[in-house]
Amino acid sequence: MKQTKPITLSFVLLWVLLSIFSTLAIPTRDSNTFAVPLGVPNAKKSPNPPSYAILPVKTPAVPVGTPPKIVYLQVDTGSGSTIVLPPYNSSLSRTAKKEPANDTTLPFLGGLKISGHYVRDVFRIGSITIRDHKFLAGTNVSQEAPGNGILGLGIRTQIPDGETIGAPLLGIQLVKGGGGQILFGGIDYSKIIGSITYEKQSVEDQWIIPIKLAFTFGVELPKNSSIESNRPIESSALIDSGSTVVYVDNGLADAFYQTIPGYNISTDGYYTIPCDVEVSTLPVVKVIINNQEFPIPRADLVFEPTQNDPKQCVGGIQGGQPNPQLWILGDTFMQNYYLIFDRGEGQIGVAKRSDVKYDDH
Questions:
Q1: How many domains does the structure of the chain reveal?
Q2: Pfam families of this UniProt entry (predicted)?
Q3: Model pTM greater than 0.85?
Q4: Which CATH number fits the domain that encloses residue 322?
Q5: Could you read off the pLDDT of 172-212 as tens digits, one per residue?
Q6: How far, in Å, CA of 157 to CA of 212, rounded?
Q7: Of the candidates 321, 2, 44, 31, which has an alpha carbon nearest to the alpha carbon of residue 177?
Q8: How would you class 77 by CB atoms within 10 Å of its CB: exposed for 0-12, middle for 13-18, buried for 19 or more?
Q9: How confident is the model at residue 158 (pLDDT cuts 50, 70, 90)?
């Protein structure tokens, strides 16, 4: 989840709970890797989420504190902070230790703000226990929050004493609808087709890499358009599972939507397009990483209807990034590819997935 200060997204924690999920682990060829299935059993998807910047891709049940409270945490590669919300209450946990720092408020894209204090407490899953684990115990939330908090998977590492994984990396498969898998310490090659494309990080302490975006338009562009068909535009992007869509600068977003008949800007500031748009007429959007093209299926450019107009749907590409040299690749992109976050080599890997149907362009 992108916070409003994009250069300070990851400030506490990366490999949180690297081994606490081992009792839920799916066996792999390497005994030092742990596969964590994502998604909450029997969870109901909200037809109108309060913010399209939030998609509830959650962990399995995580007991926290003493006596333990069960929480489900949103998987968030764009944040280094782990945040735990009610039903956890640090004042009711016998093992909680409040940190000396003052209370903190963390702002996120979409208007969400979470206030609380840092504590150290116990995370338990089965026989695995991590003691004195530091996280933000959230006490005040400005709007409906994702699940019971956030599992920050930013780039900083914190491996519990006595627990190891095969390598300082994780593989992520996000499935449309909120499911998927995280493999801590390895790569699940059974989910990959073809080769893996790697790109080095351009910012040391965040999952940011250089990318290009290219568009293929089926209509004639306005004479004053700032973009051209099939001309790549260079920038850098944060790979962020806590953001639903792809965020670019307002100039690029405006030029993109001017090519789509019936587009609008909602009262909340989101670009919208007609829900009944013929998907095949939408522009082709390609993310280019290390000279390899990774198209975004055009169906993923149409999200759910807006709350104020059920005939208009939120677009999968949005503006709002003040810096044209820093975009965000959220779940619009991530749910179509297998992502490898390799801290050891300082790089991100991207590969096509065996469970995704790609457009024929």
A1: 2
A2: Asp (PF00026)
A3: no
A4: 2.40.70.10
A5: 999 887 788 888 788 999 999 999 999 999 988 899 999 99
A6: 28
A7: 44
A8: buried
A9: very low
